[in-house]
Amino acid sequence: MSFRSTLILVRFLLTFINRRVFGRGILRSKTAKTAAIAIALTAFVGYGLLTVVVVRQYFDAEIVEILLLSGGAATPFWVLIAYTIVRVLFLKADQLTQLTFMLPATNRERTLAFAIFEALMVVGASLITFGAFIIAAATISGFSIIWRAVAAIFFPTILCYLLFSIVYLGVERLVITIGAGRLRGLIIPFLFAAALVGMFTLANSQSQEMLQGYLSGQPYFIPQLGFLKIADSAGPALAVLVFLILLLALGTLVLVAAPKDYEPVKQHYRVLSGKLASSQLGLHLLALVRSFETLIVLLFATLATAGIAILKIEIPPYVLLFVTFQGVYAFANSEPIRRATPAVQGAVASYLNLVTAQAIVLLVVAVPAVAVSTWLGIGIQHSALAIGFSACNILLSTLVGILFPADNGNPFSVVVGVVLVFAIVAMVAMGLNIFSLPVAINVAVVVLLSVAVVAYSIVGINRIERIRRYEIVA
Amino acid sequence: MILNVDSVSFSYKRSFPVLHDVSFEVPENEVVALVGPNGSGKSTLIKLIVDLLHLRDGSIRLGGQDNGSRESKMRSMYLASNDYLPEFLTGSEYLHFVASLYGETIDRAEAVKKFARYQMMGRADELIEDYSHGMRKKLQLIAALLLKRELTIIDETLNGIDLDAAYAFESDVQSLARDGRSVIVCSHDFAMLQRVSQRLLFLAHGFIVTDDSMTEVFGEYGSIDALVRDYLREEADELP
Q: Quick check: B84 and A336 CB within 8 A?
């Protein structure tokens, strides 16, 4: 086991992210990259300023302390969410994993490198999520809050991440042992989804226990707040020491749990009739439905609809949103169709095939979801709104997939796209909210924006195809 | 003539031309060997012929039609050097999909025979994702052999396939170049090219260095290998 090899692999992965994620699609252009950075920074600074204003206006030191403890108590829950997303992304990035096979590294060195790389991503996301709150809190409670945030949030985050890695690798090893290794793309997200439900219940009860204990002065025990307790009672040095010991122990367990050999994940499943392949639309439908990530969201949507019906939860069919995010992969997944000769499809036809295939899937899922909602007493106008919103989301996610194509087993590009689009949508939504416009005008604005999204998507496809033919310079 | 390439020049960057005034023709019933060192412009030339790159200088016509026209695309088939296929389809579905693009139907019995001939018996209904590199290449070849276009262009597709399949291909490609059909085979396997082709196109630094029948090549040099070695030796002598 060589740590040098591990560090080289981490550097390799960081270079991959830098060049293939931050240097692809629309980000290839320096102007676009600068604009993207400016949008992200503006959104973050705006979010930071808003947090500082709200925290200073409404919170005092005691509320800040309660929020910090709540944030720390909820760490396993949101780390599990982050871990599940990262895991699904990496399952989709099988080719990236295979790229590391040509390097002289063992599977364990590779596993450790991926764990470090993923942990860096999660710590980065935590800094962005909690950074603004911590800065705002520091203006009220002083700089000591920074250290307390590290003990309450960052230490548990890293250890939870490693803990989930051990569980994941253990399950991976188990499914490989029973001969179902290639199916882990379907099996593992389901196990994590089930774990999320359990973790949500646990996080709720722990938060209540912590809150009651804090307010009544009674002792309470929340393991993830242990570092804070140790720091408060025995000093920060001991907390750091305990953290390092646990880090070493869990890191070692990650290596022990890692399977010795790598088995590629099955990316496609043979569902729907192959006769559909005789038409372009049918082919796009097959490309969409046969991919493992679509099957995951379809099964999630079905289970969620069943759960809503059984538990009689009266909400509009927002479960439809599950299936609309597949648009981010639609353009990249249909690449082999466009490359097949003699492909003489124009950008408009390509785009229509992409979104129509997704609309068909949406409608199929909508039938039971709307039926359940209606049965539970939800008005049809609310269901129609949910379907309309989902349809807009298909257009938006397809645009993200065109501007930030998840090509060659690199699904990370779409993360950048989703973040940027989310920032833009949040700004528009805030703008509409501030002006308190009538519903009809809001709908008109959304329709106009959707038309712009469609137009920009078609222009994007046309441009990509022309660049590929060297008709124009990238 | 099935293919007319006339005064074609191309560059990816203005300062670095890849093809210089390339002209040649491919008649019916001929297998043409396209050879040249790496970077000589072979793949660029092929992509221009099948309209995957935008032609700026010169003209390319397939069966008398502009190469960008739908008719030209229906006449030709291009087998890329990579194995980039729709992995979400089975081998059999892929054949039907490609056939539908050409407005044709696949003879199921013939397809089964071809799968057997290329040592892929019983694998037609598996997803392409589960195929090895060599099997994907064989699938591309089977598609070309079943669809029998007027012009089939094979760009190093044979790399990675096993010997049995390579021998089967040598026999099949000659059958393919009959009844008015032709094939361009781009490869570095000179021995195979000598066995299957009637004509040689040798491309170097974007220029056509040799455009002769195999009989002429054998008469003057003895083999393709000797011709290429002779060229490389002359080129090396010119280096400072």
A: yes
